[in-house]
Design goal:
With 285 residues, this protein is mainly alpha-helical. It folds into two domains: 56 residues, no CATH class; 195 residues, no CATH class. Helix content is 79%, strand content 0%. α5 runs parallel beside α13 and α7 packs across α9. It is globular.
Length: 285
C-alpha cells in the first residue's frame, strides 16, 4: 500500500513538473529549448554573415527570419511578421529614422558640420572644453561615423594640449557616446521607446543618473591626464549667427522628440525646411 502511494506521489510530481515546464519553459522564464536554439542559430548566422562582409541590415534580417521560424510555427511567424509590418509604430519609426538620416546627410553635404566645429572652437574659452563638447555635439548629429568626423578636431586640439593618441581616442569616443543615454533623436533610444511602448521622456528620466555619472567619470579622467592648457589663437572672430544656424536644427528636433516621439518627424521636416530657406537666402546674397 505504501509503495502504491509513493508511486502515485512520484507520478503526480512528474506530471506537475511536465506541466510547469510546458508553461514556463526549461528555465522557468517562459523560454523553451526550441527558442534557445533559435536564438543561438540566429546569432551564429548574423556573426557569420558579418564576418563575410555581408551588409549588417541583410544579416539582421536573415537572423530575425531564422529566429522567427525556429521559435514559432510558420503560421504564427507569418502572423507576427504581418502585424509588425502593418503596425502604425513601424511606419512612424521607419519614417523617423529615414528623415533623421536625411538630416545628417544634409549636414554633411552642405558643410554645416565644419561650420559647427569652427563655431564651437571660437566660442569656447578652453581647449579642454572643446575636447569634451565637440564629440558630444557631434553625437547629437544623426550622422554615421560621427566619431570619425569629430576625430580631426579632437586630434588638432589634443596636440595643442600634449595628449597622446590613446588619450585623444578615449576622450573622443567617451564624450560622443554618453549623450546617447538621454538624446531623444538617437536611434537607439527611439527604438527602445517603440519596443517598450512608452514615450521617450520617461526613458530619459530613468537614464539621467547614468548620463550624469558618465559625464562625471569622463571629467574625472581629465583631472588625471596632464595637459598643457593653451587656447589656440583663432584667426577669424566668433560668429553667433554661424553657430546658431548650425545648431538650431538639432535643438529643434530634440525639443519635438521630448514632447512626443512621433513629433520627431515634424521636427526633422521643419529643420530641413529651415536649412533650405537659410541656404537659399545665402545663395541669393
Amino acid at each position: 500500500m505504501q509503495k502504491l502511494l509513493l508511486s502515485e506521489k512520484i507520478s503526480s510530481l512528474w506530471e506537475g513538473r511536465q506541466k510547469y515546464k510546458h508553461t514556463t519553459g526549461w528555465f522557468g522564464f517562459g523560454i523553451g529549448l526550441l527558442e534557445i536554439l533559435g536564438l543561438l542559430a540566429s546569432l551564429a548566422l548574423i556573426f557569420a554573415m558579418v564576418i563575410k562582409k555581408t551588409g549588417i541590415g541583410v544579416a539582421l534580417l536573415a537572423g530575425s527570419i531564422v529566429l522567427g521560424l525556429l521559435s514559432l510555427k510558420p503560421p504564427g511567424f507569418a502572423e507576427v511578421a504581418a502585424q509588425a509590418v502593418l503596425d502604425r509604430k513601424t511606419f512612424e519609426l521607419t519614417a523617423a529614422v529615414a528623415l533623421i538620416a536625411l538630416l545628417g546627410a544634409i549636414y554633411r553635404v552642405t558643410g554645416l558640420l565644419e561650420e559647427l566645429s569652427r563655431g564651437l572652437r571660437r566660442a569656447l574659452p578652453s581647449d579642454k572644453l572643446v575636447v569634451e563638447l565637440i564629440p558630444a555635439i557631434f553625437g547629437l548629429l544623426p550622422v554615421l561615423g560621427g566619431a570619425l568626423m569629430s576625430a580631426p578636431v579632437v586630434d588638432d586640439v589634443g596636440d595643442d594640449l600634449g595628449l597622446n593618441s590613446e588619450e585623444k581616442t578615449f576622450l573622443n569616443l567617451w564624450f560622443r557616446h554618453v549623450v546617447f543615454f538621454i538624446y531623444p533623436v538617437g536611434t537607439t533610444l527611439l527604438l527602445a521607446s517603440y519596443l517598450a511602448g512608452i514615450e521617450v521622456k520617461p526613458l530619459i528620466l530613468v537614464q539621467l543618473p547614468v548620463f550624469i555619472t558618465s559625464i562625471l567619470a569622463g571629467h574625472a579622467i581629465w583631472l588625471i591626464i596632464e595637459v598643457e592648457e593653451s587656447k589656440k589663437d583663432v584667426e577669424s572672430p566668433f560668429s553667433k549667427r554661424e553657430l546658431g544656424k548650425a545648431i538650431f536644427p538639432i535643438l529643434l528636433v530634440a525639443s519635438f522628440g521630448v514632447i512626443r516621439r512621433w513629433l520627431i518627424i515634424v521636427g526633422v521636416l521643419l529643420s530641413i525646411a529651415f536649412l533650405a530657406i537659410v541656404r537659399g537666402l545665402e545663395l541669393e546674397t
